[in-house]
Amino acid sequence: MTTIAVTTWSLEQTAPTDLLSAAAPEGDVRIVRSEVPSPEFSRFLYASVGGDILWTDRLSWSYARWLEHLERPGVETWVAYDRGTPAGYVELEAQDDAVVEIVYFGLIPAFRGRRIGGHLLSYGTARAWDLADRWAGLSPTKRVWLHTCSKDGEHAMDNYQRRGFKLFDTKVEEETDAVAPGPWPGAFPV
After folding, report:
1. Cα 177 from Cα 4, distance rounded (Å)
2. In a structure prediction context, what are the per-residue pLDDT tens digits for the chain, which is 190 residues long?
3. Which whole-number Å values give the CA distances from 58 to 50, 55, 112, 140, in the listed order?
4. pTM of the model as a whole
5. 185 phi and psi, to 5 degrees?
6. CA 44, CA 165: separation in Å to the nearest integer?
7. What is the dihedral of CA 36, 16, 30, 184, to 10 degrees?
8. For residues 53 and 151, what is the distance between their CA atoms, to the nearest angstrom?
9. Residue 61 CA to its chain's centroid (Å)
10. Where is 188: in which H helix or E strand?
């Protein structure tokens, strides 16, 4: 079993004014909140966006586990649509001390390179900052954070920094090397 060194970077914004929004892409691109908890749809987004970059931690989740997660107060999924087709998503999760994590963010491979990612990240980050406006009992957001790693797309870190996120932690760990699972077995060539 071979291992690879994986670098994980944690980035944050500490004020809404830190957000540097990207321009909206041309065409019919809309971002909509997925308000009805749907394990099927959320798993589709997770597997389709992360299948080529080794997102595997949620692939074994049961329907009940997905539903439990999605129904938690302060968990939101915002989906980018290009001409009515899901192109990517951002998942937000309220945490203690008025902190919101951008837990997952990305685009389905066919939609990368179309300037949708910067727009989706900008929109999702703005929704992290105003999350308490939609959830009774949550304190106004004081910090938004996320992490990315060396397995993510080559433009991920640049996109986060251009949106105003600042690096606050870096870790390097050995992980077992694995083949990207794709959104279904065999979706990507080995």
Report:
1. 6
2. 788 898 999 999 999 999 999 999 999 999 999 999 999 999 999 999 998 888 888 999 999 999 999 999 999 999 999 999 999 999 999 999 999 999 999 999 999 999 999 999 999 999 999 999 999 999 999 999 999 998 888 889 999 999 999 999 999 998 887 777 777 666 655 4
3. 10, 8, 22, 29
4. 0.93
5. -55, 130
6. 28
7. -60
8. 6
9. 18
10. none
Tokens linked to 146: 């996320």
Quote the tokens at residue 186. Answer: 């065999």
Q: Where are the beta strands (DSSP E) in the chain?
A: 3-13, 29-33, 75-82, 85-95, 99-107, 143-149, 166-176
Residues whose CB is less than 8 angstroms from the CB of residue 57 and which lie 6 or more positions away in sequence, other chains included: none
Residue from 142, 72, 79 nearest 116 by CA: 79
